[in-house]
């Protein structure tokens, strides 16, 4: 299953005997799925069925669906209100004679409200059912187009996310291989700190107890667990992206775990090189999480 973005656009249309049908669908980010419909007057009856079509394909995003329906009234004859037309013509002539107004024209008189009317095409039940069925069929086509649009953007987004994961993995491996984590280096650093304390305090400190405390602090400062968890999170995130589907919320939770481990790594670090790696990790994790906000 492919990864989907929550943004996209699609349009679909069709010609039916006596009508032109067109749907436009736009999708943007949302915490859940919300479908908003704009339907022509008289077609509110389609709302529930239209929402079900959208809900069947998408699980997150704010989707706005607009239906345009143009009826072909070529078979309908216009009706002229001859009484009103005659009264308007007489009035125009009097105004011309009395005030010197320009003579009235035929198109001007016919443009007066109520003079020329085009009656609406009457719809029987069969025609309504045909129109409803065709409208929903065009919506299915538009929804399929929107899904494809979201998948195309989702594929590009997945590539960006995988790139961030590769960077995170590279930084974790750098932290793991940092010379400051070498046991010999750790012993030398702790030994040096103990010697400084002993020289400063003279005989007031218990050397054995001091070494034990230093060893305990060194154990607490070890970042092995953070490195292992970060590696596991990278594997899990890659697996989710490969799996596809609606993974945005799950990846967002994992991004929070990335951030937590990065913070812990920085707080436990006793080497400037590892701290710098931890800070760089935080930047990449923030970029990773920002991209996730557009993922279904």
Describe the structure.
The two termini are 12 Å apart. The strands form 2 sheets. Strands 1-2-4-3 form a 4-stranded mixed sheet, with helices on one face. Strands 5-6 form a two-stranded antiparallel ribbon. Helix content is 61%, strand content 14%. The chain folds into 3 domains: 8-74 and 126-150, Ribosomal Protein S5, domain 2; 79-117; 152-292. It is α+β, with helices and mostly antiparallel strands and 296 residues long. Residues 185-296 form the Endoribonuclease YicC-like C-terminal domain. Keywords: Endonuclease, Hydrolase, Nuclease. InterPro entries: YicC-like_C, YicC-like_N, YicC/YloC-like. This is YicC family protein.
DSSP, total strands: 6
Strand content: 5-15%
Tally of distinct domains = 3
- Per DSSP, the total helix count is 9
Indicate the radius of gyration in whole angstroms: 36 Å
Characteristic terms for this protein:
3 domains; 9 helices; 61% helix; 6 strands; alpha+beta; Ribosomal Protein S5, domain 2; 296 residues; four-stranded mixed sheet; two-stranded antiparallel sheet
Topology:
Blueprint: E1 8-16, E2 19-28, E3 33-38, H1 47-57, E4 61-71, E5 79-80, H2 82-99, H3 106-110, E6 116-117, H4 125-177, H5 183-201, H6 207-220, H7 224-243, H8 248-268, H9 272-292
Parallel strand pairs: 3-4
Antiparallel strand pairs: 1-2, 2-4, 5-6
Helix pairs in contact: 1-4, 4-7, 4-9, 5-6, 7-8, 8-9
